[in-house]
Each structure stands twice: as structure tokens, then as C-alpha cells.
Amino acid sequence: MLGENATKIIEYRRNNPCFTQQRIADVFEQDTGKHISKQRVSQILKAAGEKTESVKWKAPKLCAKCGEPRETETKKKLCRKCRHELQSSNAVPVACHWCGKIRYVRQPLLMYRITVLHQEHFFCDRHCHGKHVGATIGFKKRYTPEEVAAHIRKSQREYLLKRKMGKRVSRPPKGPAFLLQAVC
């Protein structure tokens, strides 16, 4: 059988699960005037089959805008709903240059892309951007035969000039046979 002091300690634990053992001992001493150690509180709680560890209580994190509880894993001060409203309030609709799908882009980001990056076309994703690049530029730049011949002539001149100066250099690039005949 548990004594009167033990039932008081168990009552403290049940009424205040956030209290540590030291806090329970201090409150018991204030109420009864009797000193008790935190180890003795632990022994009494174990004998009664109560939890000896205190419950860690955290205040719920509230949204700065609406006051509703928000996700604790995020460092942002707004709940998901308010954050979405804020992002969509300063979002500008932009049509994809390739497929025409409407996408909302935040205004500061859009201004940065236009003024700093000088972007003329906007795309909904990487897929559309890749299709546009493949259709307009291609995966290899296509040179005209005249441009290739001019490049070969220039590299051959540089090669001969460096050889005259006594520098050791690698061979100049060779082009297709029909272009080399045009050069010579």
C-alpha cells in the first residue's frame, strides 16, 4: 500500500505530466513542508507503475497571418494555405512558348528573368524548353560550307605562322574533302 505522501506525488504526476521529478519534489515540499529528493520521487512513481519521464511540451507554432497551427518542420512563418495565397497574389500568368500552357510565375522572378537574364521565351518545364532548342537551334550548330572553309583557312594560317616562329604546335584541323579543295 502506498502512503499519503506517495499518493500526493502520483497525483502531481497525473495532473501535471510536464513536471520534471525535481519540480514535483519542489511542489511537494511547498505543499507539505517535507523535503523529498527527485530520486525518491522516481522510486515512488516506478513502484506505482507511473511514467517517470516528464512529457516534453512544445507550444504549437502558429501562422503569422491567420493564427492557425502550421507545420512544425518548415522554417517559414506562414501556414501552407497562407503561403500559397501570398505566392499566387503576386504571380503573373505566363504562357509557355512551346505548348501554350499557362504557368504562374512570381513577379520578382519574372522581372529578374526579363531584365537581368534577357529571356524572351518562357517555358512550362524542361521538356518544352528542350523541344524549342531542338527545333530552333538544333543539337549541333549547322555551319555553311563557306563558314567551315574560312575557319580551316584561319587555323592553317595560324599553324604556319607559329611554325615559322619556331613554336611546336599540333596539326591544324582537317575539314571535309570538298572544303579542303576549295581552300587550296
What does the model show?
There is one protein chain. The chain folds into four domains: 4-48; 59-89; 92-136, no CATH class; 145-183, no CATH class. Helices cover 50% and strands 5% of the residues. It is built from eight helices and two strands, in the order H-H-H-H-E-E-H-H-H-H. The longest helix has 20 residues, at 145-164. Mean pLDDT is 79; it is low at 176-184.
SSE order and pairing:
Blueprint: H1 4-15, H2 21-32, H3 38-48, H4 80-89, E1 91-95, E2 102-106, H5 107-115, H6 126-136, H7 145-164, H8 177-183
Antiparallel strand pairs: 1-2
Helix pairs in contact: 1-3, 2-3, 7-8
Helix content: 40-55%
The secondary structure category is mainly alpha
Task: List segments where confidence is low: pLDDT < 50 over at least 5 consecutive residues.
Answer: 176-184
Average pLDDT confidence is 79
How many helices does DSSP assign? 8
The largest beta-sheet arranges its strands as 1-2
Largest sheet: 2 strands, antiparallel
Rough shape? elongated
Quantity of strands, as a count: 2
Distance between the termini: 114 Å
Radius of gyration: 39 Å
Q: Total domains, how many?
A: 4
Strand content: 5-15%
Please write the string of helix (H) and strand (E) elements.
Answer: HHHHEEHHHH
